[in-house]
Structure formats: C-alpha cells, structure tokens
Design a protein that fits this description.
34% of the residues lie in helices and 30% in strands. With 197 residues, it is of the alpha+beta class. A four-stranded mixed beta sheet has the order 1-2-4-3, with helices on one face. The chain has a four-stranded mixed beta sheet with strand order 5-6-10-7, covered by helices on one side. Strands 8-9 form a two-stranded antiparallel ribbon. A hairpin with a 2-residue loop joins strand 5 and strand 6. Helix 1 runs parallel beside helix 4 and helix 2 runs parallel beside helix 3. The protein starts with a strand and ends in a 19-residue tail after the last helix.
C-alpha cells in the first residue's frame, strides 16, 4: 500500500494529513473552510486517493495560512506515498466538463514543481472561500508534491462550476499519473533513473 502521513504544526496552523494512493476515494476532511473541504473531497473521490485532512488554522486572521498549509501537507503526504515513484505512469491529463464550464488539466510527476494557471473568477468569494486562494492552493500542492501542473479554464460562466471542474480534472489527471504501469512496474519512468532531487 502506498501511504503517506504528515503532521505539521506552526504558529499559524496545526495539520494532520494522511493519504492512501491505492484507495477507493474515501475522505474525512475538516479544514474549517467549507468550500475548501468540498473541493478536497472532490479531489479524493475522483482520484480514488483516500484522504484524511484535519486543519486547525488562524481563520480569525484570514484563510491564507489554512489554504496554503493544507495544500503543502497534502502534497508532502502524496510525495511520501509515491516513494521512489517506481512503476508510476507519471503523466496525466484530462478535459473536465462541469455543465457549461470546461477545464483542461495536464500534469507530470516530474519532481520539478511548476504551476501554469489560466483561470479567472468573476466574484471574490465562493461560499466563505476567497477565490484568489484557489491558484495559491494549486501552487502549494505543486511545490510540495513535485508536480509540473498546467491548469486552464477553457470557458464557463458559473464560478462554482469552473473551480469544481478544475478540481475534478486535477483528480482525474492524478489518478492516471499515480497508477502503476504493469509493463514497467519495477522501473522509474525516466531515462535518468530518478525523478526529482
């Protein structure tokens, strides 16, 4: 079983995250931000990664630290679970429709974290979550997990549909990328023999 577990405590947040990459998409998420919970739950359900994520953050200040640190801890747990990355498919991509909205996500578990973000929102908040924090969440998980991640909202008018489509697309692309290729299950998918540092 490819599992990872991270605890992270700072003056701003207290976090415990665990993942099982070979799960069934079960989740238990409590970040204190309802809409963020909903998005991480969507990621779990559609990636089939089991996720437990508990965050106690300084929400009396704002959402920044909770959002950022939840993504860092989740990315670190995924990286830990991937280990030496032997046998993984490595690449994943998807088009993700959500009613009138369509997004495209492509990623490479390369060990070289990069985020290319082409999405915008027409309202400052969804539920109680600041929409400017979505890009930062993806930036943080990309850095922590070592993912080259390209996200693009191709079109859409409903802000909820746009971001939910993006999270579901990220989940489906991750599901592809972390899957084991039975033809090369004993090898790291790189001519270098390693992925990342």
């Amino acid at each position: 079983m490819r599992t990872g577990s991270i605890t992270r405590k700072t003056e701003e947040t207290d976090i415990a995250v665990s993942v099982n990459l070979d799960g069934t998409g079960t989740y238990k998420v409590d970040t204190g931000i309802g809409f963020l919970d909903h998005m991480i739950e969507q990621f779990s359900r559609h990636s089939l990664i089991d996720i437990e994520c508990r965050v106690k953050g300084d929400l009396h200040v704002d959402q920044h630290h909770t959002t950022e640190d939840s993504a860092i801890a989740l990315g670190q747990a995924i990286s830990q679970a991937l280990g030496d990355k032997k046998g993984i498919t490595r690449y994943g991509h998807t088009y993700s429709p959500m009613d009138e909205a369509l997004s495209r996500v492509a990623l490479d578990i390369s060990g070289r974290p990069v985020l290319i973000w082409k999405a915008a929102f027409t309202q400052p908040r969804l539920g109680e979550m600041d929409t400017e924090m979505f890009e930062h969440w993806f930036q943080s998980i990309s850095q922590a997990a070592g993912i080259t991640l390209h996200i693009e909202s191709l079109y859409g008018s409903n802000n909820h549909h746009i971001i939910e489509g993006i999270y579901k697309g990220f989940a489906r692309a991750m599901r592809q990328a972390i899957s084991i290729d039975p033809r090369k299950a004993d090898a790291v998918p790189s001519t270098k023999g390693i992925l990342g540092g």
